[in-house]
Amino acid sequence: MSIIDNAARSRFEYDVEDRTAFIDYRRADNVVSLTHASVPRELEGRGIGSAMVRETLDLIRARGEKVVPACSFVDAFIRRHPDYADLLAAR
Rounded distance, CA 16 to CA 40, Å? Predict the structure, then answer.
């Protein structure tokens, strides 16, 4: 499993067991607003969402970008994992 930036659909995709979890985004310059995270119902409760957010944030960090956690799930993840706080864009 690894995250794929599907720029044509403006979302990061995470394929698991022939299903696709994703995080929708908007990009402006060097800032990525993560707007909505979705995990297929049959995959819920297995940590897929957290793994997807972690890989997405790692990719954003590797690209030298900043993030706006507009999605409540992503926002909560960053609050629980302060090692990602450096990615937050000034608001």
Answer: 10
